Amino acid sequence: MTAISSDFSSVPVLPKWIVPVLLLAFAYGVVPLIGSSYLFEAILLPFLALSLAGVGLNILTGYAGQVSLGSAAFMAAGAFAAYNFNLRVEGLPLIGSIFLAGIVAAAIGIVFGLPSLRLKGFYLAVSTLAAQFFVQWALTKFSWFSNNSASGVIDAPRLSISGYALDGAIGRYLFALTIVTVLTFLAYRLVTSQTGRNFIAIRDNETAARIIGIPVLKTKLLAFAISSFIIGVAGVIWAFAYLRTVEPDGFDLDRSFQILFIIIIGGLASIRGAFFGAALIVVFPLGLSRLGGFLLGDLFDSGVLDMSQRIVLGALIILFLILEPDGLVALWDRIRRRLLFAWQST
Amino acid sequence: MPLPSYALGVMDASVYAPEVFARGLPSTLRQEQQPQGSGEPAGSVAAAAAPLLSLQGIGLSFGGVVALADIDLSVQSGEIRAIIGPNGAGKSSLINVISGVYRPDRGHVELDGAVYAQVPTQRLAHLGVARTFQNLALFKGLSVLDNVASGLAYKVRSNFAGQVLGIGLSRDEQRDSLSRAEQILQFLHLTAIRDRLVGTLPYGLQKRVELARALVAEPRLLLLDEPMAGMTASEKSEMAAFVRAARDRFATTVVLIEHDVGVVMDLSDRIAVLDYGRKIADATPDEVRNDQRVIDAYLGGASDNEGTSSNEEGAGI
Q1: pLDDT per residue over B277-315, tens digit each?
Q2: Pairwise CA distance, residues A237 & B255, whole Å
Q3: A94: closest CA among A255, A239, A224, A231?
Q4: In chain B, what are the domain boundaries?
Q5: How many angstroms away from the CA of A214 is the closest CA of chain B?
Q6: Running DSSP on this structure, what letter comes out for residue A326?
Q7: Do B154 and A213 touch (CB under 8 A)?
Q8: What sign does the dihedral A314-A48-A171-A16 (CA atoms) show?
Q9: What is the rounded CA–CA span in Å between residue A64 and residue A197?
């Protein structure tokens, strides 16, 4: 059926749930059948973990406007908490360990969110660095956390759900996919609820938010708690499903910045944005190494790759901040509108 | 000589009031109606009752600069009270004291019988006080509807978990706040733009959305900090009609700051005049118009200008 007017607004809009449902059907039904183990191990598992961390940070930074550089610390807290719950509590199912790990990360998030009651923007970001350094220090310093392992590197427990082992790449992929799907859906519900509107209100105008009676302090701490919970669970996926080892070094400041870049490139205050950003961050180095190897051959060794990766990523972030502050999501929406419009005019 | 803008005011009432009232009032809304028009101050109705808002001996200074000196102010329930004065006279400071943004150095604020040294901002909405800001203070990332619904956030009792799962109480609250926001949008003729992001709206409409956000809680006291600043003459008279209609529909007491004397004379029941942080007059529009001190301090030549511009506007319509 052709449009009556050529106005943008007359472009037929699919129901909002169609695209996510189709994507999920593809991810559950098709990907496990056609994917290679390389695809799962090197691309999809880190993509899922980082996407979830991005969703978590986006709730805090994108929606509630509180800048944080402590994401990796909350990931580490989640990973180590899940490891210890799993190790020390007899008979606790894996899902229980993961949930409790999220709670621990949330509690730490609240503690390190307390400065947000007084600090804003850049100063708050610096104070969240404290979380980053403190958590990493504590995990290295007290060997109890890593069960007195000499190297500090410990094997993650085998993934299983009610006795059914999920050892293979596909099993771990489905495990991660399910957790990410559920938490993302809940996060989406949250940001469209009254609490989510309160987050945005505090981000956009804190004074006005206080005047109209939004409990500003409580809401900020809630944002820290929920965000840290999700990031903590993302840490569990990162350690248990992707790396299959638990070590503090993987959760350093670089990781925190990586997650921040994911939401800046993907799109602040957008759940989809975290997935767009994570996809770019995961696929981009692989693509760059292929491209470099193709163009320069042996000259393009791992040192050059690492260097060029940083340079291109830095340039990308600057470009996005200047040209498309709303991220890949906004870019994608614009292209899609153009395509639909062009398709309709023919 | 009566200000020509008076005629304009009568037109406003006839243009807006009938359709506002023809729509029928939802049972949840208070229906107390005040006499129409500017001729009869509502103060005469409620004069016997204790004032809703009363300031006693308010003093405020920033460093060495005296913003407010020994201000007394008493506002009756249902009244529209304007506060006028030249730039820097302390008008916005006064609103900020009433809404608890500033803590006065001296004096206290009495709200419906309760006395405060500093009005608790966090509980302002619970006390039935809503305000707008001189420079817009909307939530740019939210739609018009969500901005207005956020005016009801203070009474939300469900927690985030209930909201995420969409169970019981949170569901009712969500439905209730959206339907009340819709009613206010209709009342202020904003329904057509309900899904737009407020950041994309023209200035005059943003001002009106801010009024809607303040009104949705049906406050007993509405503080408007220059609600018509930066508007065209026709937008101003439209806004004045909305303020009056809001007072009539919700029995809200209104305290407003405004520069345009023509609009104020027509809209308010009483006018307080500030000059250099002091109150130099507090009377009905007619008395203020003829008060020599006010004319010296503020109106002076300006009143001629206002009169002329309003005259042209009136003739234009």
Answers
A1: 899 889 999 898 888 888 887 655 444 444 434 333 333
A2: 56
A3: A239
A4: 5-51+77-104+118-128+219-316, 140-205
A5: 5
A6: T
A7: yes
A8: negative
A9: 9
Q: What does the alpha-carbon distance between residue B236 and residue B306 come to, in Å, rounded to a whole number?
A: 13
Exposed e or buried b per residue across A81-91, where buried means at least 16 C-beta atoms within 10 angstroms of its C-beta: bbbbbbeeeee
Q: B146, B160, B195, B200: best mutation site toward chain A, by most A Cβ within 10 Å?
A: B160
* CA–CA separation, A300 and A133 (whole Å): 34
Q: Which two tokens stand for residue B44?
A: 């005469």
Residue with tokens 């972030």: A317
Q: What angle do CA A253, A256, A258 make, to 5 degrees?
A: 110
What stretches of B29-167 show up as alpha helix (H) in DSSP? 43-46, 91-98, 144-149, 160-165
Strand bridging mode B129-131 / B114-116: unpaired
Cβ of B141 within 8 Å of Cβ of A214? The answer is no
For A279-289, the pLDDT digits (tens) are 999 998 888 88
Residue B144 in tokens: 């018009």
Torsion of the alpha carbons at A142, A145, A146 and A152, rounded to the nearest 10: -40
Residue showing tokens 């991810």: A27
Q: Which amino acid is at A120?
A: K
Domains of chain A: 8-345 (1.10.3470)
Supply B98's token pair: 């009433």
Q: Residues of B at the A interface (Cβ-Cβ below 8 Å)? A: 99, 101, 121-126, 130-131, 133, 137-142, 146, 149-151, 153-156, 158, 160, 163-166, 170, 173-174, 177, 213-214, 217
The model's pLDDT over A195-220, given as tens digits with 9 standing for 90+, comes to 999 999 999 999 999 999 999 999 99
Residue A55: pLDDT over 90: yes
B269 to chain A nearest CA, in Å?
A: 26
The span from the CA of A71 to the CA of A253, in Å, is 8
Domain B5-51+77-104+118-128+219-316: CATH superfamily, name plus number:
P-loop containing nucleotide triphosphate hydrolases (3.40.50.300)
Q: Which of B123, B146, B155 sits opposite A197 (nearest CB)?
A: B146
CB contact under 8 A, B177 and A194: yes
Cβ contact, residue pair B101, A211, below 8 Å: yes
Q: How many CB atoms lie within 10 A of CB A126?
A: 13
Say how far apart CA A169 and CA A171 lie, in whole Å: 5
Rg of chain B on CA atoms, in Å = 20
